[in-house]
Amino acid sequence: MQSLLVTNDDGIDSAGLRYLVEELASRGLEVYVVAPASQVSGASKSNSFTVKVEKRKLEGAREAWAIDGRPADAVAIGIKALLPSRPVMVVSGINIGPNMGLVDFFTSGTIGATIEASLLGVKAVASSYAVLRGLRDEKDLRGLRTASMITADIVARLVDVIYELTDVDIINLNFPRGEPKGITIAPIANIANIEIYNGEDGNTYHVLGWRTDDLSVAYSGGEEGSDVDVVKRGYASLTPICIRCLSVATYPVSSLSKLKEALAGLL
Fold first, then answer.
1. Is 153 annotated as a binding residue?
2. Would you place residue 175 in the very low, low, confident or very high pLDDT band (cuts 50, 70, 90)?
3. Omega prior to 96 cis, within 30 of 0
4. Does 127 count as an annotated binding residue?
5. For FRET with 130, which of 88, 173, 221, 230 sits at 20 to 30 Å CA-CA?
6. Is 229 annotated as a binding residue?
C-alpha cells in the first residue's frame, strides 16, 4: 500500500489535521503523521538545527509523531528517518486560515512543508480553510469537514497519477468559509497584503495577522480568476505549482490537461 505523510503548521492537535487524517484513512490510504507539537504558523520552509520527536496516537494514522520543530522539519525527518518507506505524497493541512496570494506562499508553514517535500522529490498537496479568526461556530466545523473530504478525494484521485504531472510539484488548495460552490483551477494572486500595525503598548508591531475578520478586506485586490478572487466568490481554488520552474503564477498547459483529466467530475 502506498503511504502518505501528513503534517501541518497549526500543530498535531489541530482539528484540521485530525479531520484530514480521518478522511484520508477512510479512503483506504495508509497515513503517517509527523507534525509540530504546537502552532508554528508563518514558519515558511525554515528548518531547525535539532528537533526532538515524541510518539503519539492519532485516530486514522498508522503511526504519528509530534516534534518540537517546524513543518519543513517534520517533512524532512518523516521522509528520511521515521517512515518505514518513502511516502508517495506529502499532504499538509488542513490549515485554519487562508494561504492565498504570493505573500502567503512565501510565508506559510503549511506551504513550506510542501516545498520541503518537493525539494526531496516527493509530490505534495497543501490545503487551507480560509477563515481569519479561527473556527467560530458549527458552520466553520462543517466547512472544515467538507474541505477535508474534498482534499481527501483529490489526494485519492492523484495518488496513482501525480508523478505523470511532471511540471507540477505542489497543489495548493484554498476553501472558502462554509460550503464551496465548486472547485476552480486558479493561479496565485500577485498581491502584497502585508498589514503592519502597532499594538496598544505602542512598542509592539503586528506583522502576521489582520485587524479585520473580513476576507475581502484582508485580501483586497487579486486578479480576476486568481486564487484570491475565486475564494472570495465562494469557490475552492486549486493551484498547481512548479517549484523547479520558479514560476509560481503560471503552470504548463501539458500538465494542466492531465490534471483536469485526473480530477474529472471534481472540477
1. no
2. very high
3. no
4. no
5. 88
6. no
